[in-house]
Amino acid sequence: MKNATRNGILAMITACTIWGLSPIYYKAIGDVPALEILTHRTLWSVLLLFLVLFFAKRLNRLARQDMARVLVAALMIAVNWFLFIFSVQAGQVVQTALGYFIFPLCAVALGALLLGERLSRLQWIAICLAAFGVVLKTYVENTLPTIALALAVTFAIYGFVKKPLDMGPRQSVFWETAILLPLALGYLVYLVSTGENHFGHDAVQTSLLIGSGVVTGGPLVLMAFAIERLKLATVGIIQYLNPSLQFFTAIVIFAEPFEIYQFLPFIVIWAAIILYTVSARKYGP
Questions:
Q1: CA dihedral defined by 231, 115, 282, 233, rounded to 10 degrees?
Q2: pTM of the full predicted structure?
Q3: pLDDT tens digits for 185-220?
C-alpha cells in the first residue's frame, strides 16, 4: 500500500472515529442547551478553519455566484448539527445512527430524481430496500423515525447544493460557518445579556465548548486530506464507520432501550447498504 493511500485511509478512519464517538463528547456538556452548543460549535469551527486555511494559503474569497448555494448549505448543516446535539441530549443516539446510515442512499436518490443521474437496477433496489427499512422501523416501533429522516434529508440536501461548488471541503465549510457566525455571535451576546450563558462559569464545561470547534472542524480537515488521496468509493465505504460507532455508543455505552426485534429495520438497511456498495463497485458509484 502506497504511503499516500495509507495516510488517506488513516485520516478518514480517524475522522469517522471522532464523528462516531462524538455523542460521548456532547453528552458530557448535556447541561448546556443544544442551541447554545451549536453557537459555540459554529464560532470555534470558524476560527479553527480560518487558521488552517490561512497558514495553508488557501483562504480565498467566496464567489458571488456561489453565495446562494453556500447559504442554503449553511442552513442545512446548522439544522443537521442542532438535531444531532438535541438527539444526543434526548437519549436518541440510535436514531442519529439510523439517519447517517440511510443518508448516503437518500443522497443517491436525490441525485437520481433531481439531477437525472443514472442508477443501475441493483442501486434502485438498494434505495427501495432502505425505504422499506424505514417503513419497517415505523411499523415495529409504531412511530415515524422523524429525527433519523430529518438528519438524512438535511445532510442529503446539504451535499446536493454543494456538489456544483468549485472549492475544497475546507473552504466550503469555512464559508458555511462564516455565514452562520453573525447569528451565533448575536445569540451569544443575548445569552450573556440575560445571564443565561454557560461559557466561563466552569473550566471543564468551557473547555469542552471551545473544543467543540476541534471536534467539528478537525474531522473535516482530515476528510479533506483523505479525499485528496483516496477514491470517493473508498471514502464512502469508510464513512459507514461513523454511524456504526454511534450505534455502538447508543447501545453499549448509553444503554438506550433497544429490543431484539428493533434490529430488523437495521438489518434491512444494512442489507441495502451492502447491496449498493457491491453495485457501486461493479457498475461505478
A1: 20
A2: 0.85
A3: 999 999 999 988 998 888 899 999 999 988 988 887
DSSP string, 233-249: HHHHHHTTHHHHHHHHI
Type and span of the H or E element at 216? helix 203-227
Strand, coil or helix: 78: helix
201 or 42, higher pLDDT: 42
Collapsed DSSP state (helix, strand, coil) of residue 228: coil
Distance, CA of 213 to CA of 174 (rounded, Å): 12
Q: Are 188 and 39 in contact (CB under 8 A)?
A: yes
CA dist 218 and 21 (Å) reads 14
Q: At what angle do helices 169-194 and 67-89 cross, to 10 degrees?
A: 60
pLDDT digits (tens, 9 = 90+) for 114-127: 777 777 788 788 88
Instruction: Tell how far CA 103 is from the center of its chain.
Output: 9
User: How many CA atoms are closer than 13 Å to the CA of 179, on its beta-carbon side?
Assistant: 20
- Angle at 78 (CA atoms; ends 72, 83), nearest 5 degrees: 130
Cα distance between residue 98 and residue 242, in whole Å: 11
Cell numbers that stand for 131 in this block: 425505504
**Taking residues 62-71, what's their average pLDDT?**
86
| pLDDT of 64 | 81
Find the length of the chain. Answer: 285
Give yes or no for a contact between 180 and 74, defined as CB atoms under 8 angstroms apart. yes
pLDDT reported for residue 282: 56
Take residue 284 and report the three cell numbers written for it.
461505478
- Beta-carbon count within 10 A of 216 CB: 24
Q: How far apart are CA 260 and CA 217, in angstroms?
A: 36
pLDDT one-digit tens code per residue, 86-111: 999 999 999 999 888 888 778 778 77
Separation of alpha carbons 179 and 166, rounded Å: 18
Contact status, residue 84 vs residue 96, Cβ threshold 8 Å: yes
